[in-house]
Amino acid sequence: MPERTPFYGRPGLNTETYDVRAEQDLAAQRLDGDVAFYLEQAGRVGGPVLELGGGTGRVAWRFAEAGFDVVLLDLSPGMLDLAEAKRSSKPADVDQRLQTLRADMRDFQLDRQFAMAIAPFRAFAALPTWQDQHLCLETTREHLRERGLLILHVFDPRLDLCLPELTAPLSPDRGRVRHPVSGNEIRIDVLSRHNDPLAQMLEERWRFTETDSNGRVVRQEEEILRLRWTYRYEMRHLLELAGFEVEAEFSDFRGSPPAYGREQVWLARKA
Ligand SMILES: C[S@@+](CC[C@H](N)C(=O)[O-])C[C@H]1O[C@@H](n2cnc3c(N)ncnc32)[C@H](O)[C@@H]1O
Hints:
Rossmann fold, four-stranded antiparallel sheet, single chain, 26% helix, alpha/beta, 11 strands
């Protein structure tokens, strides 16, 4: 496996089980209410909507179903294929409202502007440096209308999990899910963790093991997750540096005030 393949970067057990695992994250409250929250904000500012790192369309299809035109942008062909695979089950009007696009959120050029841009489920944290994050914010700003709304969701770093001496994951067993097509059991383990506090990067090696009903391992794949953690005030300054005005800052999708070690949900307007 090439070391530098981005997480979700190739089709396989990771991309194929994304939606079922996102359901678990809903249950674990990391994502609780996120889609309803984004839809409510779109009700306030209108469409069209641009989703950065839209993946399998977990969020974007819900926008199309709610009547908004939406562009789902993602770098991963495997994730985009899964978003496209949902098209055949949608009514014609919903189908027409969603466009998928393979592009890098740091560097894209669309000949239209959006009322709202969103980056749900920590997609922005996949950008490895603050310069990449700045580029993404500048490019996104160019694609927003005057006073257009940007919503970013990243995690608020728990400092005990970001220490340089931490070499083993604190929760190596990430549970089991059923493969949505084969019905086989997929076991997910995190084999190692490395933190780089200077670059604010964490790196984890994830292993996905598919076992059939006879207990035989039929597939085993590994991928490296790399995420950059962003401190709350750094995030505010990044937004301001790129020409955004912070409108609100929450620690979940119910509008709770900022809180250490929870989520960062930012609402910012094109200034
Ligand atoms: C955790 S998933 C989130 C998917 C979707 N937003 C959701 O909430 O279900 C992160 C997504 O960001 C995408 N991604 C990572 N880096 C990217 C980049 N530089 N440009 C575009 N997409 C990127 C990945 O391919 C992946 O689909």
